[in-house]
């Protein structure tokens, strides 16, 4: 190797220990984080405090060093005076013969570009989250009369708490009295504004254009302006011509269009940007979980929701004093430690009087939104059929003679059959809901199905379900419309609902596992299967599904009654907690010949009252 070359290489090595001559602090250089066009970035530890920083190192030598020196000096002059939680903190700078060093806040989760590399696209709630931080940091920059001029995902850094910070002020500049700075073509070509491309100077509104490009890029996975050759791309930029992202929500599309207005004066200010429908009408998470760096987050409910859940539960269990005794449980929300309000387990001690008739105090009720064209009233018809089914059971055969029925199925089932002979039930795996979660005041009513799927009937009357085994998502905005998506293709506007559905599903599956419920097997539900109605009062809960299945759970019994099929195929299935994954099913003939016990009769009556009150 030539001596001159060797000398240059050795000069570029950054020492392991570095001393800032101004402050006297000694740092230890750590691993290389990454390389930029002009710089390298290392992890850095302050030897006296053990505080960790990022060290940006810019070589002083090399071709074009004067220009580079000017650039670095400007970056230091601007950045070192900035103090804002959404701007990468600038702690110190010093230089030696070979390098200029900048000691910066360490952002351990690197940048949004790193997230996008893995995720390709972000969900709309995430975009709202990141943009709130970015707008806050950018507003501060603009207030200091600084324009960034190089806003892009690789310059949006993330600390360990997933807080977003604008960094790399290498191209930042102060604006003049007219709010513009030098007419130079700088920044990442894809994100350059029309006025920059036309060399009319860069202003705060050019940064806002870049936000439009970034919003488009993170939601669709490609930048709005990416054509080759460059001249064609610049023409599209000047004309504001980009491919309409039809897959995005109307509010996201409309905000992108506002941000990408070719006339800078037509672009919203940063304050107006946050007042846009996209921000004001969509869910924005308070924070993002770190795993959202590599997979779409499932949003946790904000704390007031937990409280709300508790309140709903308490309402369910205490407000309407039940006329018959049952044990109530503390309410809780998904992910909390106490038991849920909606899983109505009860103990009916042997010999306790059963209340047969009671006034209905509806505590919760939900039905899907109906299609305006549905003149026949599908729900009304299905309710009628379900009611008939319950009546059929109640009218079948003589009343059981057992005066003190137990809650266990076998014991509860005592029709007028010869003693010791069990009614001829069969083990059948019918579709039913072993778990549910009632958050209907805020979000909706979620249920776990015995085929492994889960669904939510949302407050707005729409229904969304996760279908095993492929994990397809069925969405019914109203009764009569069905959309099916692969999980990763669920459109932005439905992501918040999907997040609620997944959160409910996780919670219910965890509870089933904790309770030791055997894995269920059932013929998978059809894509349009949904929950048509849920009704609860202080004693019972009734669910009516779109295939005509009715499920009734009572506080006075740990078993669930599931009435499925019609005519010859009609089955009354008794599902016991902790019992086999398959319930015991009885045909109408068996019901007619053996009758039903008082306990089952009471249970069915509770369901009938609920259905009649919908
Ligand atoms: N404060 C920081 N905390 C953690 N990582 C950082 C920090 N600053 C930069 N990095 C990482 O160091 C690498 C180099 O960053 P740098 O800013 O020097 O160049 P760049 O932005 O990648 O490229 P260019 O400067 O050419 O735009 C990048 O991977 C970046 O994510």
TrEMBL record:
Residue span, Protein kinase domain: 27-279
A cellular-component GO term for this protein: nucleus
EC assignment: 2.7.11.21
Cell compartments where the protein resides: Cytoplasm; Nucleus, Nucleolus
InterPro entries: Kinase-like_dom_sf, POLO_box_1, POLO_box_dom, POLO_box_dom_sf, Prot_kinase_dom, Protein_kinase_ATP_BS, Ser/Thr_kinase_AS
Keywords: ATP-binding, Cell cycle, Cytoplasm, Kinase, Nucleotide-binding, Nucleus, Serine/threonine-protein kinase, Transferase
Enzyme class: transferase
Classification via CDD domains: POLO_box_1, STKc_PLK
Name of a matching Pfam family: Pkinase
Annotated region described as Disordered, given as residue ranges: 326-350
Domain POLO box per the UniProt entry, residue ranges: 432-510, 528-614
Binding site residues for ATP: 56
GO biological process, one term: defense response to tumor cell
Highest taxon above the source species: Eukaryota
One annotated GO molecular function: ATP binding
Recorded catalytic activity of this chain's protein: L-threonyl-[protein] + ATP = O-phospho-L-threonyl-[protein] + ADP + H(+)
Family of this protein: Belongs to the protein kinase superfamily. Ser/Thr protein kinase family. CDC5/Polo subfamily.
Protein name as annotated: Serine/threonine-protein kinase PLK
